[in-house]
Amino acid sequence: MRIALDSVDLDIRQGEFLCLLGQSGCGKSTLLNLVAGLDGPTRGTIELGGRRIGMMFQDANLFPWLTVRGNIELALRLSGVPKSEFNDRVDDLLSTVRLPGAASLRPHELSGGMRQRVALARTLAQDCSILLMDEPFGALDAITRDAMHDETERIWAERGLTVIFVTHNVRESARLGDRVIVMAPNPGRIDSELLIELPRPRLMDHPDVSSRAAELHRRLQNGIS
To answer: What is the pLDDT of residue 214?
Structure first.
């Protein structure tokens, strides 16, 4: 039997923006799936304190036959929101992700960044207080990715969310995280952690972000060797 994760002991404070950083196969997504309840641990426990979970993936996974409004309404319906509240809630969520005029569009009419904004709105429709993000911007171009970093940081701050963000990009983790957990493979485990004590908002190319990214890169290389 292959061990995906071994001896992972992690406390996350409410309202923290935590990044999980590591190469493919080190257990980042497995850990996220365990927190989301998509998989169950063979040993140990996961304590969420009754908080609701929302999860966002690299693929927006929007239903192509539904409009943007329809995709978000589906999440509201599954969350038990009364139908009478749908219109106001959808409008509010689209305003939150800065797509107020997109309700009637279908996924094929949206850019990659717009689809991810809709996916984020659909996730927020679940009234989650813990937002899990599994490399959500990995397929976006650099300019769109930077814009999504800004939007994610703004929404995290406005809503007081706890975010667990999976990435293999050292600069992205230094740009976004309050704390970065560096993971190592074979089996997946926590190798080290780094506090990113930098003021917000941050820029990807800021020298302080670059220096933290260089330190994270060094730790990643040490964990592989």
So the answer is: 96
pTM of the model: 0.94
What pLDDT is stored for residue 167 in this prediction? 94
Beta bridge partners of 188: 5
The pairing of strands 189-195 and 53-56 is unpaired
Distance CA 105, CA 102 (A): 5
Q: Cα separation of 173 and 167, whole Å?
A: 7
The per-residue pLDDT for range 101-137, each reduced to its tens digit, is 899 999 999 999 999 999 999 999 999 999 999 999 9
Tell me how far apart the terminal alpha carbons of the chain are, to the nearest angstrom: 24
Counted residue by residue, the chain has a size of 225
> Which domains does the chain possess?
1-51+129-225 (3.40.50.300), 63-127 (no CATH)
Residue with tokens 């493979």: 185
Tokens of 106: 């279908």
CA-wise closest residue to 94 among 36, 134, 151: 151
Contacts of 29 (CB under 8 A, 6+ apart): 134, 166
